[in-house]
Design brief:
With 208 residues, this protein is an alpha+beta fold. Helix content is 41%, strand content 12%. Strands 1, 2, 3, 4 and 5 form a five-stranded antiparallel sheet that branches. The protein is globular and about 40 Å long.
């Protein structure tokens, strides 16, 4: 698949087929993640790939399995989601947070070596390692798309990161930025309308 076609086709998917992904393909996708730019040249990243559904169930036990309409409306209010398309995107995404990861063929947990306190940085440069791992995550999304798969993503809330550490046993000096689900999209998977952005309106030549 040509690069710009991959970029165009990449979408977050939350509805997956019950289909396995070979180890070779997973390694290829994560290998693309390891090619991402890194802040210190070391690429001190690790990835836990979870295929065992018993481990998946334990890992996801902390994530709510749904949300009431009342709580959904309150969330939209609390998060100041005033745009109608944005609201619809959240109404589709929030109730699926548990199921989308459970139904994915694999869950990938990216990890970065935590050399500074990411949650309480002294300066923006202390977030360089955190920024780098997100470059890796995007490469994983694009590589999965190129192979005919798709990804979904959840950023840990509350103590979900520490729960994942207890379940998966990764070291205390490694930080988990997100859960990534990878799988084959269902033929009738929901396609969320994207905001139409005119690139000409977002580019400022030489000055704002």
């Amino acid at each position: 698949m040509e690069f710009f076609e991959v970029v165009e086709k990449r979408r977050t998917v939350r509805d997956f087929e019950n289909e396995e992904i070979s180890m070779d393909i997973i390694e290829k996708i994560i290998g693309a993640g390891l090619k991402a730019p890194t802040n210190d040249h070391m690429r001190d990243w690790h990835y836990i790939v979870i295929r065992d559904k018993s481990v998946v169930l334990q890992l996801l036990d902390i994530i709510p399995k749904g949300i009431s309409e009342e709580d959904m409306n309150q969330l939209i209010k609390d998060w100041n989601l005033s745009d109608n398309e944005q609201q619809e995107a959240y109404r589709n995404a929030v109730p699926k947070q548990h199921k989308m990861l459970l139904d994915a063929s694999v869950i990938v947990i990216p990890l970065l070596k935590q050399k500074t306190d990411i949650l309480h940085p002294d300066s923006i440069s202390h977030l360089n390692g955190f920024a780098s791992i997100w470059c890796s995550v995007e490469n994983i999304f694009l590589a999965a798309t190129a192979e005919g798969y798709a990804c979904t993503l959840r950023v840990p809330l509350g103590n979900e990161g520490e729960w994942a550490r207890d379940v998966l046993g990764f070291p205390n000096d490694y930080f988990m930025p997100c859960f990534i689900g990878v799988g084959k999209p269902k033929a009738d998977a929901d396609v969320i309308k994207q905001k139409d952005i005119d690139v000409k309106e977002r580019i400022h030549w030489d000055r704002w």
